[in-house]
Design brief:
The chain folds into five domains: 211 residues, Alpha-Beta Complex (Spore Coat Polysaccharide Biosynthesis Protein SpsA, Chain A); 49 residues, Molybdopterin biosynthesis moea protein, domain 2, CATH 3.90.105; 89 residues, Molybdopterin biosynthesis moea protein, domain 3 (Molybdopterin biosynthesis moeA protein, domain 3); 145 residues, 3-Layer(aba) Sandwich (Molybdenum Cofactor Biosythetic Enzyme, Chain A), CATH 3.40.980.10; 74 residues, MoeA, C-terminal, domain IV (Beta-clip, Beta Barrel), CATH 2.40.340.10. The chain starts with 6 loop residues before the first strand and ends in a 5-residue tail after the last strand. Strands 6-5-1-7-9-8-10 form a seven-stranded mixed β-sheet, with helices on both faces. The chain has a six-stranded mixed β-sheet with strand order 17-14-16-15-19-18, with no helix packed on it. A six-stranded mixed β-sheet has the order 26-23-27-31-30-28, sandwiched between helices. Helix content is 23%, strand content 29%. It is of the alpha/beta class. The structure holds adenosine monophosphate and magnesium ion.
Length: 630
């Protein structure tokens, strides 16, 4: 289920708005419409439905709300935000309520998404936005935004009980709940417009900060996370498996849990070269050194069956079974004195139990050694081998077909006619799919011609689990592809709030010959890679039945990056150890979506979140490491 379908948006327009005089803030004209309508437009893509809480001018609000309800407070004579929240929770038909004030026309497009992520991560009832803001140029302070909140609808009884005590303050109510605070970098996105002067100022010439906060993406562009969710929800693992000799299973997806048939290690053994003895014989505090007689020797693979008596020990090698009666091993370098057949030990050299590895310490017989869905790496092969298992069941390889589209494309070996480019996408796709462990079907270049495209899709749908195309999905180009895909499948054309990689087609191709998932990636060489990693890769992994997440870290950005909120940007970077070993990242020069060099020089992608504004040099940014990706 998508997040959007779980969220109802509540616009709080019920307050007094005294700072603007007795005017109704939400209805103030702003950039060719009203403030509340801006809020509505920004909330709508994040929620299944909207409700407006207003206590005056209900018909005007209803005109803005359209089908959505406009509800006055349930509680009389109290116009604070908690009364609005109460009616919002009473109405809320979904499990979550997202609130925003009617005078915040720049609110983040990923408000719900980010609040929800924190709510889940922290098992909270409420998630609130926090920004850093400096008053009059002073040190930035944490600023809580209690009216930008995501709440569980199940909180209503708690709110009713709180209001019944006569209490009215939102902040104090939150104090009684489990609250997740979510830091947003773009303080301007939460700016509300408090005075008529401010309103006019924004209206006439947006202040520089407000201009920076204006969304870069179109209001109907889909957030990346939403597209990822929709795609992943539709994917199911393929059922077919095969059994392979262990070595051939490298990089394959484990199809069944591996249960250990034995204890690993199978017997108690020594972690060191030294002397196995009975801990009870060690000298006590203040007692003189004790000299043990060495009565035998235990090698790895050649156990010693003698049982030492008091004052006796056995010379032992690493990995050798602990001899009967012994419970401790003195490493040879800790002996006070060693003679031909005696060893002298001082008090405190070791404790009882030292250097003894227990049977089953690594893995217990009957325990799960590796979980289904794991992509088998070298350590996993070793682990399976340590159990004495020589064959494993893995998922069959996914069959992925791919082709490039475009009249301007030339294959390697062809001469490059005027206005043409060599087809590079088929090589990056080949590499990415091979690394992912797919069986690939290279369909070559398909001309920008409806019949050729249809033929290619029909042919591949018979052979492949998934088809990846590049090019031909941008708005102009997509016109004819849309018709074909409507005929032979069920494919959506999305405009995503991201850069690079704005257009994406996703859906299913169904012909008499078979069906396959289609990922129509954009044509630009960097966009193709970024969209592959963000959308196709997780979907293909899911089809492969694999469990895999990408390593994400934070690094200090050594340079300023210009960015407008409203879309997620993926910039290519080089992460390295900075001063004191702290990770730092710089960009790889020009970031155009056709400049593949930016990708080859990079070792990571800098992810600038949808709501994020420009980054100043020295700020921390999210970084997606290529390790594991390429
Ligand atoms: P399209 O999405 O088809 O409009 O293509 C966008 C840009 O990407 C155009 O400049 C294309 O020439 C370029 N392009 C598309 N496919 C490829 C390809 N397979 N290899 C290299 N460049 C491509
Ligand atoms: Mg094209």
């Amino acid at each position: 289920m998508s997040l959007k379908s779980k969220v109802t948006g509540l616009i709080l327009a019920g307050g007094r708005g005294t700072r603007m005089g007795r005017v109704d803030k939400g209805l103030q004209p702003f950039r060719s419409t009203t403030l509340v309508e801006h809020v509505m437009r920004r909330l709508a893509p994040q929620a299944a439905g909207i409700v407006i809480n207003a206590n005056r001018n209900l018909p005007q609000y209803q005109a803005v709300a359209g089908e959505a309800p406009v509800l006055p407070d349930y509680l009389d004579g109290f116009e604070g935000p908690l009364a609005g929240l109460q009616i919002g929770l009473q109405y809320c038909p979904t499990e979550l309520l997202l609130t925003a004030p009617c005078d915040s026309p720049f609110l983040p497009a990923d408000l719900a998404e980010r609040l929800h992520a924190a709510m889940l991560a922290q098992d909270a009832d409420v998630a609130l936005a926090v920004t850093m803001e400096s008053e009059d140029g002073g040190e930035p302070q944490r600023q809580l935004h209690p009216v930008f909140a995501l709440l569980k609808a199940s909180l209503l009884p708690q709110l009713d009980a709180y209001l019944a005590t006569g209490a009215r303050r939102m902040e104090s109510w939150y104090k009684s709940l489990r609250v997740a605070e979510v830091m947003f970098n773009d303080a301007d996105a939460f700016r509300n417009i408090n005075t008529l002067a401010e309103l006019q100022q924004h209206e006439r010439a947006p202040a520089p900060a407000a201009a920076a906060a204006a969304p870069a993406g179109e209001p109907d562009a889909m957030p990346v996370a939403e597209a990822q969710r929709i795609i992943c929800e539709r994917m199911t693992p393929i059922a077919a498996t095969e059994t392979l000799p262990l070595r051939s299973a490298l990089d394959r997806v484990l199809a069944e849990d591996i249960v250990s048939p034995i204890n690993v290690p199978a017997y108690d053994n020594s972690a060191m070269d030294g002397y196995a003895l009975r801990g009870a014989d060690l000298p006590a505090a203040g007692a003189p050194d004790v000299t043990f007689k060495v009565i035998g020797i235990a090698y790895a693979g050649r156990p010693c069956t003698q049982t030492p008596q008091a004052g006796e020990c056995i010379r032992i090698m690493t990995g050798a079974a602990i001899p009967p009666g012994c419970d401790s091993v003195l490493p040879q370098e800790l002996a006070a004195h060693i003679c031909a057949d005696t060893v002298t030990i001082a008090h405190g050299a070791i404790r009882t139990g030292a250097n003894r590895r227990f049977a089953g310490e690594d893995l217990k017989a009957g325990g799960i050694a590796l979980v289904k869905g794991k992509i088998l790496r070298p350590a996993d092969l070793g682990l399976v081998a340590s159990l004495g298992i020589g064959e494993v069941a893995v998922q069959r390889k996914l069959r992925v077909a791919f082709f490039s589209t475009g009249d301007e494309l030339r294959s390697l070996g062809d001469s490059l006619d005027e206005g043409c480019v060599y087809d590079s996408n088929r090589y990056t796709l080949f590499g990415m799919l091979t690394r992912l462990g797919c069986e690939i079907i290279d369909m070559g270049i398909v001309r920008d011609d409806p019949a050729a495209l249809e033929a290619a899709l029909r042919e591949t749908s018979a052979q492949a689990d998934a088809i990846i195309t590049s090019g031909g999905v941008s708005e102009g180009a997509a016109d004819y592809t849309r018709d074909i895909l409507a005929r032979i499948g069920d494919v959506a054309f999305w405009k995503l709030a991201m850069r690079p990689g704005r257009p994406l087609a996703f859906g299913q191709i169904r012909t008499e010959a078979g069906s396959a998932w289609l990922f129509g990636l954009p044509g630009n060489p960097v966009a193709v890679m970024v969209s592959f990693y963000l959308f196709a890769r997780p979907a293909l992994l899911r089809m492969m039945g694999a469990q895999s997440t990408l390593p994400m870290m934070q690094a200090r950005c050594t340079e300023a990056i210009r960015k407008r909120p409203g879309r997620t940007e993926y910039q290519r970077g080089i992460v390295s150890a900075g001063a004191g070993g702290e990770p730092q990242v710089r960009l790889t020069g020009a970031q155009g979506s056709g400049i593949l060099r930016s990708m080859t020089e990079a070792n990571c992608i800098v992810v600038l979140r949808e709501a994020q504004a420009s980054v100043a040099a020295g700020e921390m940014v999210d970084v997606l490491l290529f390790d594991g990706l390429v």
